[in-house]
Sequence to fold (855 residues):
Amino acid sequence: MTSSTCYHCGDPCGSNPVRYDGRHFCCNGCKTVYEIFQHNGLECYYDLEAAAGTTPKALVGKYDFLDNPELVEKILDFNEGRTQVVQLHIPHMHCSSCIWVLENLSRLNKGIKTSQVDFPKRKVKITFDSSVLNLKEVVLLLAKIGYAPEIALEDYSRSKNKVDRSLIYKLGVAGFSFGNVMLLSFPEYFESQEFWLDQYKPFFRILMFVFSLPVVFYAAQDYFKSALKGLRSRILNIDVPIALGILVLFLRSSTDIFFDLGSGFFDSLTGLVFFLLVGRFFQQKTYAHLSFERDYRSYFPIGVTKLNADGTEENVAIYKIAKGDRLLVRNQEIIPVDGILIKGNAQIDYSFVTGEAIAVSKLSGDKLFAGGRQVGGALEVEALKSVSQSYLTQLWGDTAFSKNKASSFQTLTDAIGKRFTMAVLTIATVATLFWLWYDPSKALNVFTAVLIIACPCAIALAAPFTLGNLLRIFGRHGLYLKDTNTIERLAKIETLVFDKTGTLTSSSGNKLVYEGMELTAEETSLLRTTIRASNHPLSRELYNILIGHQISTLDEFVEETGKGVEGRNGAKAIKVGAAQYVGATADTAVSETAVHISVNEDYKGRYVFKNNYRNGVVPLFKRLFKNYQIMLLSGDNDSEKSKLQRMFPFQFPMFFRQQPTDKLVFIKNAQTQASVLMIGDGLNDAGALAQSDVGIAVSENVNVFSPACDAILDANKLTRLDHFLQLSKKSITVIKASFILSLCYNIVGLYFAVTGQLEPVIAAILMPLSSISIVVFTTTVIRLLSQKLNTVN
Amino acid sequence: MSVIYVLLSISVCVALIFFLAFILTVRSGQYDDTYTPSVRMLFEDELVNSKTTNNQKTDKTD
Fold:
């Protein structure tokens, strides 16, 4: 019985591996997948990457909503004749083996014609013959081999919108024109007196003019729009001087060539727009496989089983549930609406809603809240409300979810842009006034030259490249940000609010600690045997802990729902359950979740469920405590309070029993004093994450869904949080330094402009030089600063 | 030397053709997923391999 790992998924097999074909498997699910692959000549799956598989989960009825043709129609991309096309999101996709097997689905079923994977989006596009198999069968086939698709209806209504590629087109236009104009303006730079070159000068200039037209009127249109929008709301953003620069460049250059005054600045004009767009493109890094916009609908099922009055079952879309409907909720399904339990053994896991990790028992006639997950048998529930009016889902009606954090935040660039614009306009006016008095013929020339040279290209590039680089570096280290704006907001954070369950504690189960008199081996074996038959979630957890002890047979077994179980073997009788049931004295802490044990009516002790805190939380808090105010906001009861207070050498405020709405309000109040960073995980934090200045969702598996937030943090990297915060602050310093650097270029340029000797060549050299040196500067500094992230763990 | 008009027009036309080709490739979605094709191109061998094993499937022992 050597410990082996599963040939399919790589998990340890435990003491009793499933043997098949000379290989070991951790469970029958994995073995079945292996069998399927082997029968269809797909064993190469295991050659590409060892142990790449995922254990298929039991999914009775999970995809039953696909029987509803109305829903199927919404999900299908294309449906004509016998050909149907669907795009499915498969979060478990993670390696080249996955790509390979998903692209060879046609071997598993003849009805599947082609399948094409888009790995960055974790999507597979499947074309199948609807006369051979239907969508539900396709989905079940995928689920059977361990690639269960995640189907969220709102993704489908969104993805049918066209992909926005306009920035790439604009970049293409600007780059194309920039290259051609540079080539055409080359002869002008050398001012050679060659006869033929002089002869063709007008032709070259007209061509340059033509090339600049699409740049000004198409590629640069966003800058004009943004500047106009800013001016209308009386804000001088950075796009105002940029738009002004582009406009003046174009008008001055056009008059120059049409009145034969000079060659114009078309090269600088096209180059400027090109560089600006490159910066914008660089900043636009997105994580296609992550979604930062999820709301409760992603957690809830799409369709539910409705029980009609005549006893028939029907699959209906979740938004069609009306008050009074009878619903069937199966094991592991989420209760979609507030309702009343009619029938069934309800063990509801409310960890989504409250953060409380232990499931609670409910009796028939009890009220059930939407968002709870049933563990155990099937339930019959009568809906009390519609889905959107349920207690939990009402949270999404709060204004916190509709406001756009990025647009209400003034970025550093915009703050500088305002002062910069004022300064440039002042200099231009003063210089023009001086020249009007000194030499009026040059006044207009100087005015335009100042606006051209002061066009803040380098300033506009500093932030995109600094933040864009940092965004990529953060991504490599497990923090995935929604956009670059988040970094700037992160740098301003003063207060950190942590959720407890799932954030500070790991979701991989609770720690069970035994307190009391030691149990003999015989008693432990009896205990295990007794709770084996019990379906209570606490029993299940305890049973898993006691693996390794012998199972004996019971002479007698009694289960009293809601109280406990009793088992008898020979002379020994064991009682397991609530304190009163086993006859424990009432001195035990009530708020603790515990299982009490007595043998022959003799109280022995209890198993207490303790949260399992992540490694490194204490050192992290110590580091953070120096610079930030820390708070804890938990939906759980306060049984862990004293333990937490002992864990940390300093005190910080802790709040327990916070409902999702309480959390939202709490953050709102905290924001009146400081910028708040919320770090949470589940649906119960969704409101707080949306309301906070920056909301970070901690996730054990970043590919699987997390609530709407600004950033997703890999749970293993939680201890690096202080480094991430520090780096964001430093990046702001880097941006400021590059502003100063680019101002130096501007001063040199302004000297030429104000003295009336700005030649197109000077502009053509200064503009790319400043832009490129800023890009090099910010990239190098950010890389050096982030070196530290590689060394810490 | 007026051939320069012709030459320039031709060169601009060639440049435009390439530019249009770029636009068309973007529009066709070629750059939407730049990762998967890099993995997919390495699969050809395995596919042939498994096809042969597939044919011999009936008398396969391991």
Remarks:
- The interface with chain A takes residues 1, 4-5, 8, 12, 15, 19, 22-23, 26-27, 29, 31-36, 39-40, 42-43, 46-47, 49-51, 53-54, 57, 62 of chain B (CB under 8 Å).
